[in-house]
Fold each of these.
Amino acid sequence: MNEIARQLNDEIVKGSQPLMGMLSEVGKNLFFPKGILSQGAEAKQKAHRINATIGIAKEEGGIMCLPSVTKSIDGLTPENSLTYAPSFGIPALRKAWKENLVTKNPSLEGKEVSLPVVTCGITHSIAIVADLWLDPGDVVILPNMMWGNYNLILSVRKGVTLSKYTLFTEAGGFNLEAFEAKVKEEAANRDKITVLLNFPQNPTGYTVTVDEAKKIADILEEVAAGGTKVIAVTDDAYFGLFFEEETLKESIFSLLVGRHENLLAIKMDGATKEDYVWGLRVAFITYGVTPCDNLSAIYDALEKKTAGAIRGNISNASHLSQSIVLEAMKTDGYWESKGAKGEILKARANKVREVACASEYEDAWSVYPFNSGYFMCICVKGVDAEELRVHLLDKYGVGLISLGSTDIRVAFSCIELDDVKELFDTIYKGVQELKG
Ligand SMILES: Cc1ncc(COP(=O)(O)O)c(C=O)c1O
């Protein structure tokens, strides 16, 4: 094992033995190399005369750049857009995102979490978290309705077993009983489990209520207290788009941090969907460890291991993208404009609920619970969902996503209010036509 990795592991063990047992083999071996990067960082501070360390090109005291490139980048200097960002992400963005975490999640007040590490989108965060914390054969607990890409990232690429519980009760709430049974069943068979919590959810658009969230946290704490190491990973991709009164308005991460030394909370969130900059690929990984003597050294070690995983994977996320997001966050009116966009999506969700749940469609589908995010799902009756999808696309030019044989996902995030009724009328027509 590399000496730096050994030192990081020593710091982790000093404060939390369970945490060490949660790291994957790769995670244990990960470190942030001192070599060129730290020498370059040192030179940046001290080499006032000549700095010949970094692998970029300079001229006349500035960054070498092509006018054909810079003409498309207004308002950002080449230093803040074209040069490499650190593998950890640019410090000002990490700091600003952390400050906002507390604003967005009031229950985090007074709880110490790590400084977020920047990734290239939440998809990348999941892959990096998997590198650090999951070995082939480990289990990740997920609902039966989930974002399909988890399968590719965790199961296909990592060799992890996805263990699923039924998401909803018959009455239409989060199935706490099924969740608890699945968590306890897996905990009985192994000494470490990982639970992936995604609210607002893809594909259903469901976020747990405050009460359901508290109970999820209680269940995970109970299992951790029983001696199982629990890694609770939150995928907060659609954070902030909460449309109902009783819905939890913060990440369940905030309820999980600091509950037990056997419970590690990992938050994955990002600007991609929250700030409507999907293609900029800016996201974050933040750790919440139960307070212990060595907490800041542990966070430092975890951030270094995470940045090491990124260094060995994509090296660093786009500096241009990070600067654009940071500048947006500093701009007057940032929160107001986010709020205004959220209101547009909320109005669509309300309209979709009003239309899709109407009794005139009762014989064609039932509606899964939804209260947040970008999506909602219907369960079609008497026709195959994929056949219906293809039929609607071919005959009416209407594009939807089919999931399995019964479910259709509607992304109301990208339909205008005025198109909602027509959309569901068309789906209804399609169902009737297929039924013949
Ligand atoms: C639940 C969930 N997580 C993550 C992602 C991907 O997010 P990103 O674009 O930041 O990689 C998606 C979306 O496509 C998603 O639905």
Note: Residues 121-123, 147, 198, 202, 235, 237, 270, 272, 278, 283 surround pyridoxal-5'-phosphate (CB under 6 Å).
Amino acid sequence: MKTSEETIPYFDLTGQFAMVREEWFREINRLGRSGNFILGDAINQFETCFADYLGVKHAVSVSSGTDAISLALKALGVGSGDSVIVPDFTFFATAEAISLVGATPIFVDINPIDFNIDVSKIESAIRADTKAILPVHLFGAPANLDPILELASKKSIAVIEDAAQAFSARIGGSCVGSIGHAGCFSFYPTKVLGAFGDGGLVTTNDSQVADQLTLLRNHGLTGPNIHSLIGCTSRLNCVQATLLLIKLNSIDEKIKSRHEITRIYFEQLAGLDLVLPRQQRGTTHAYNIFTVRSRLRDNIAQALKIHNIGHQIYYPMPLHKQPPYHHLGYTDAEFPESMRAADEVISLPFYPEMPRSHVDRICAVIRDVIG
Ligand SMILES: Cc1ncc(COP(=O)(O)O)c(C=O)c1O
């Protein structure tokens, strides 16, 4: 049964567009008049500002978050015949990027606190052919990087952070994405720093890795018609770069709004049989996606649907169950926490411009179901 209540969308980008429209159109006009459409000034400016914001030496923009991960893997020498450690519970693209470079993902279960990789299970999963660990800062909660970095250093393998959902998250004073050998970001529109189209970026403090990435994203081009390696077309679109630069300049306000909406959700959902987003001590959550967990997840989803309230299940199928990975022979029993998360999580509407009245209505529906 559906009601005639006003729809509450899971996400709405139209407010963001209205806010930047004038300035962005001016910049697009300027770009158009320059005729400098590929790897132009907008790209350099955006990369410099992004690197400054993150406190990292190099930022190399690319076409998507998926490319950011696969090109970072390539730049760090990971390829065919290698394996890479990755959490079993994340967006498909994290593993897909590993497969795209010809390597094999090794899935590891997650911890039930923040849904990130269970660091106690990584060492036993490392094989002779393992070249990297790829922790994901899922939903915006920083993964526990210190023990991962220590283990990686002991085994002489790389740590590549999937920070696609975690722009602005911090571990102590450091931004995630600036801590491992490379950090990978996505500018998919719903991200904390989102484009109005696709985009991605790799951060690194290693000049050689940055140089490799710069070549890889542009056909290995080192001079006119000279190609020093096999790369691809993975340049960030200049039109998106002009927008991202504008948004980056005022991103702290948006991050503040995310924390304020989180505070209201926490206040209104307190005391219910529901686990609210959690993070490791000493870290700052980016609150990209507001995910809660409940044994009554399906009842909550049904009630939200009845009341015209958008929601998402991120992610209903752990990676080891995805068809392209069946051949790896994993069993559900190896991933109890990943399986439990897939059954219990639900992501609620969440974006910086979200009206307070929407949060009130969503929480009232949830309280009705499980209060
Ligand atoms: C955790 C994670 N990794 C990788 C990606 C891939 O990013 P893109 O969609 O920009 O390719 C995403 C995007 O949603 C993501 O959430």
Note: Residues 64-66, 90-91, 93-94, 136, 162, 164-165, 186, 188, 198, 200 surround pyridoxal-5'-phosphate (CB under 6 Å).
Amino acid sequence: MIEKTSYDSPEYDVFKSNVKKLTGLDLNSYKNQIHRRVHMLMQRWNISNYDVFFKTFKENDQKLREFLDYLTINVSEFFRNPNKWTELQDVILPRLIQSRGKKQLKLWSAGSATGEEPYSLAILSMEAKLAPQTPVLASDIDQGAIALAKRGHYLKRQLINIPKELVGRYFTTSDGGETYIVNSEVKSRVSFQRLNLIEDTFGDDFDLILCRNVVIYFCADTKTALYHKFFKALRPGGYLLVGSTEQIFDYRKIGFESAGAFLYQKPA
Ligand SMILES: C[S@@+](CC[C@H](N)C(=O)[O-])C[C@H]1O[C@@H](n2cnc3c(N)ncnc32)[C@H](O)[C@@H]1O
């Protein structure tokens, strides 16, 4: 049985500081649910002490992967929330192309997990015939997720939202049709970078930032600080798309205008 430890106990403080040193993940910036998840995983591994728990994943890469997966929840999908992608394709990209041309758009999937979102952006940019050098930045705090994303191998069921003709155009299959591999042309449009959204500084002049299903465990102040950073990173006229449960209530205070559901624009 796990000892009853409060989330502000000295033992948990030491654990948080060890996790930060090892992974860069600052559990203090997250809501208390993250503490519950830590405990759920300890229970699952049948460990009742933070030191033993920490050592277990520090000394074993696979356990570390499991710990980070469990805490940061890497789950993603291609074209997740398809309606939003239709809006991006039919409304937002054409507007950006009209004002900025096809050569220079800077797109960013912030919290790119195992690659489905940045590859969806790259596919969209190829469909819109954006210049090949149009960069899609994909960033995540989790190195393991980035490694999987770079590999670009997916199971058939993960492609469920992708229209058939796009699958044919942008993927090849192996394993008798069970594994789908992202084409090298799509891959070449995406550059992956390890970045901690809470602590690291961002580039600038982005035209479109997607940050979806990343901030669920962030506490309110952390979220607000992040949205200010995104505002700064956008070019005037640029857009921020958040997840479909992640409405920004004080978007006006930050400087954004509403551009539709879960979509915010920096005034031009
Ligand atoms: C559920 S996935 C979202 C993937 C994709 N955006 C989507 O909507 O399908 C959340 C991702 O956010 C990443 N993440 C969590 N905290 C982060 C942080 N502080 N900085 C950067 N990435 C973070 C996790 O590693 C995870 O890969």
Note: The pocket of S-adenosylmethionine is lined by residues 72-77, 80, 111, 113, 117, 140-142, 145, 196-198, 212-214 (CB under 6 Å).
Amino acid sequence: MSMPTTLRVIREEHRALKAILQSLHLLIQQGPGENETSFFRSLRAMLFYIDRYPERLHHPKETELLFPKVREKDTGVAEAVSELDHDHEASELAVRQLQLQLLGWEFLGESERLGFVTAFENYKRAYLAHMELEESAIFPSALQHLSTEDWVEIDAAFTSNRDPLTGHHPAEGVFAELFSRIVREAPQPIGLG
Ligand SMILES: [Fe+2]
Ligand SMILES: [Fe+2]
């Protein structure tokens, strides 16, 4: 069977998120240099994107639509699912905290830098491990245990759920724009690809 829509969308969103995390990492390593204004603006835009898009739209779709269905069919994933659900709760708070720590660095200066960088690296590591666990534990189980009827149902719910969450189709356009602005404005040699 070809890759179900739900898993394809999740995987695409993971890829976009990995690119953003990697760009953030490179940018942070590079530091503000001569152009402090655009440096902090780029970092703020990227964290804002993560907060508004993956945290508020991607995670809920997994927690509400995919995970319960897989757990219902395969009790073997119960532990992974509860760990992943817990990550979802923790990382929404973590990205807010990061945004505040970034403002600390921007407005209070160097003394706040290390705290932000350390927090970001922890966030990035946890997030990559999280996506890895979803793809290694949930995906194979879902492919093995969900029937064609399950997928029809979950793909439909998944697709329609993308609309009501925030009045969505326009929002996706706005996020697409924010995303390409990030790519455009991030100082060289940052690229998303
Ligand atoms: Fe997730
Ligand atoms: Fe995910």
Note: The chain is about 85% helix and 0% strand.
